[in-house]
Design a protein that fits this description.
single chain, five-stranded antiparallel sheet, 188 residues, alpha+beta
């Protein structure tokens, strides 16, 4: 893994130098995370260069100080990686009585179809049995909770490759929808 990490961070350093030149950033006073992530959305330099947008229309892609540019840039990132606004992120599920379930070790990708998820009970909302999906499970309060995740979930996962992070973002979005009385029907 060291060679891969070394190559990645060399690439990011090169991208940062290009970004600084293109955007006129002062490299001596510039601040980012210890790993090189930049601004409110914590974009790596290559993502800043490729996917940051001027969402507030002031002529500058400023994810360091503009909430509008940051939000627009995250939306652009998600869109670039395949986000579909008309698709689900996840569905809540429960383990059927008498069933057992082994979660695959590689939960970082879609590895099932809805047809293959027999041990869980969930409302498939009329989706095709061949819809790609994955099963997620985490302990909560001493027992397992289950979710069926779809492609949009893995777009969130690309933003931060931690399953718990992506799940918390999706669950927070659902809570905000409910709190704000938004019926997007995209998360359950």
């Amino acid at each position: 893994g060291r060679k891969k990490r070394k190559k990645f961070f060399r690439y990011q350093l090169r991208e940062f130098f290009l970004l600084a030149r293109e955007e006129g950033l002062d490299m001596e006073t510039f601040k980012g995370s210890y790993a090189g992530a930049i601004g409110m959305p914590q974009f790596m330099p290559n993502n800043y260069r490729q996917l940051a947008v001027d969402f507030d229309g002031d002529g500058v892609k400023n994810i360091l100080g503009s909430a509008s540019d940051s939000i627009g840039s995250v939306a652009n990132y998600l869109s670039h990686h395949g986000w579909r606004s008309d698709q689900l992120v996840y569905l809540g599920a429960v383990l059927k009585r008498g069933q057992t379930l082994t979660i695959p070790k590689n939960v970082g990708r879609i590895n099932e179809t809805l047809e293959g998820i027999q041990a869980l009970d969930f409302n498939s909302l009329g989706l095709s049995k061949t819809t790609p999906a994955a099963v997620l499970s985490f302990k909560e309060g001493g027992s397992n909770r289950y979710w069926v995740a779809f492609e949009n979930f893995y777009v969130l996962f690309r933003y931060n490759p931690r399953v718990k992070y992506a799940l918390v973002v999706a669950l927070l979005a659902t809570a905000l929808e409910k709190e704000c009385n938004i019926d997007s029907s995209l998360t359950r």
